Amino acid sequence: MRRLGSLLAAGTIALSLGVAAPTRAQWVVFDPNNYVQNVLTAARELQQINNQITSLHNEAQMLINQAKNLANLPYSSLQQLQSSIQRTQQLLAQAQRIAYDVQQIDRAFSTSYAPATGSQSSQVLVTNAQSRWQNTYAATQDALRVQAGIVGNLDTNRTQTSALVISSQGASGALQATQAGNQILALNAQQLADLTAVVTAQGRAQSLEAAQRASAQDQGREQLRRFLTPGQGYQSFNVQMFHQ
Fold it and tell me: What is the 3-state secondary structure (H, E, C) of the chain?
């Protein structure tokens, strides 16, 4: 009986081991399909994160570029250009005698530049001739002064041109480039204004010189007429010399 009991106990243990073995084998089973799906899912999530990072980087770069495009140019030549224009305007405003005024010009041409008449005395003719010469002399001096002032602006214009070109080349955005270009255009306008001032001053001097010549010719004809008119021309008379 003891032997039979021992055999039954051994059989029970063996049966227990045979039933428990498949259960422990399920704990270490590797499913390749499930593993591949998990890896693919993780890869897709990682790609989405990378895409989001790239998108944020692009948006940040776009904001940086927009800030550069809206940045003002740190250099301004406005004050120097205004100073050059004011110097030229002051020289033009200092025009002597017949200035750049329509009413003043009309008065001068109705008096000292008016045609000589027989009712005018010789002294009036001489006074008008002298006034016309003084006008021409003053206009020539004014033209030379304007030219000298504009030559003085050339060095300032050269400095401003160099600074604006450098600023334009180093512009970090569209606004800075545009502002540099606008200032260069303003500099060109100032140079054109200087050129206009020179032409105007020189033209004034030439016009007054031409008016002087025309008036002198007219006055010469009047004086010749008086000389040839009996009783108004040269008359001889005796002159006593050496107390004789």
Answer: CHHHHHHHHHHHHHHHHHHHHHHHHHCCCCCHHHHHHHHHHHHHHHHHHHHHHHHHHHHHHHHHHHHHHHCCCCCCCHHHHHHHHHHHHHHHHCCCCCCCCHHHHHHHHCCCCCCCCCCCCHHHHHHHHHHHHHHHHHHHHHHHHHHHHHHHHHHHHHHHHHHHHHHHHCCCCHHHHHHHHHHHHHHHHHHHHHHHHHHHHHHHHHHHHHHHHHHHHHHHHHHHHHHHCCCCCCCCCCCCCCCC
